[in-house]
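To fix ideas at the outset, we first show an illustrative case, written as a sequence plus integers encoding its fold:
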Amino acid sequence: MVTEHDEAAEGVAEESRHIGQRREKLSALRAEGSAFPNDFRPNAHTGALLTQYADASNEILAQVAPVRIAGRLMSKRIMGRATFGHIQDSEGRMQVFVERDAIGAGAYERFKHWDLGDIIGIEGVLFRTKTNELSIRAGSLRLLVKSIRPLPEKFHGLTDQEMKYRRRYLDLIMNPATRALFRRREAIIAYLREFLHVRGFAEVETPMMQVLPGGATARPFITHHNALGIPLYLRIAPELYLKRLIVGGMERVFEINRNFRNEGLSTRHNPEFTMVEFYQAYADYHDMMNLTEELMRGLCRDVLGTEEIAYQGETYNFGKPFVRMTVEEAIRQKHSHAPADLRDCVALRAFMDELGVVEPAALGAGGLQMSIFEKTVEPTLNEPTFITAYPAEVSPLARRNDTDPFVADRFEFFVGGREIANGFSELNDPEDQAQRFREQVERRGSGDDEAMHYDADYVEALEYGMPPTAGEGIGIDRLVMLLTDAPSIRDVILFPHLRPKDHG
């Protein structure tokens, strides 16, 4: 009886044998002085050729000048004096046809011993086969890089999910869907950047290492600067630096970059993630919501070609006006038996006991509201929805509402039960901001590792005067998940964080 262990051992032995054979071939190339040449220059890519000549007949193709492409040899079917194969470059995959009489007996014999995964250069003419497939008839071939390790099994590709994350380079080689996903990610970021540029936002860069972590409530990563002899923090958000630029007179700014939060790993969380944050002077949170709705609708239409997005079996309509409601309205819509007074701590705690929601006793009414909202309401917000009027207690950088100081002029944007964006009218009262920082320091003293530090330099900047401003942050990784139907954040990050694995 053959066990899984026996099959695995046999597979390792077989791979080792193939690697040994390929190393012997590389040694022979070294002896000939032809290993790893760097003088082949392609003048075309497969994707462009397949698009440009999609409908061209052999009569038209005969008039096209020879082309040179380079890429990885992905298949090879030897039929005596002729071989069909496929070459893959950054744009796609294309069939090649190699004949002994066209390239010479010696070159053809060498080609027959090249391995799948080798990187080759080919020069030849375009033609259509009897099955009407656009192909390249080789006039000459070059072996540019000898692949020592064999590619994953050719029929099923790389299917182990963890291996796809750990060896993303193999995932990109073997899986066209992965390459397409990251091309879409690139298109999404390009759209975001252009959307903001044409509206007068200046792209800036702010420190990734900060003396004080700020701009969000999260546990930071800590490092040390040897020359200065001080601790530094990987930033959890660029917000306070971007708002310093608003003080300095840059009225519209944005940054697309990484944030770092010392939190767990999950399908929605990676400790290193990408965000776009943007700030606009003389605007409020209503302006940000309108801008976000325009941005999301245009992004779906221009990048995906549709305003109806399919995600994990559900369809979300970005073409109709987005839902807008307050935190308290959302709680009441979800729970018809919610307390009459959603700001009474005793009533809220009794309601939480009924719902089975447990939170620390130190929370005020705003924190209790948010516990109920996050645990029971947020996962149900499927259609594009803005939730507004967050409690000021949990919004230490947002402006209080003029008529209801219990809440802040803040919103979060949800789709599919997930937060995609967070924005608000910015707090520009330096004395109020100083008091909010002091409250955060008290929370840190009570054991809240995610509470903010007191940033005296930022308060001083506000004392010079920051114009009325609104700002927003959008999680790009979660946005890409939504627009690529990816179930895990690891699917949309090229090199996601994983637990270490021994290589032995």
User: Anything to note?
Assistant: The longest strand covers residues 67-79.
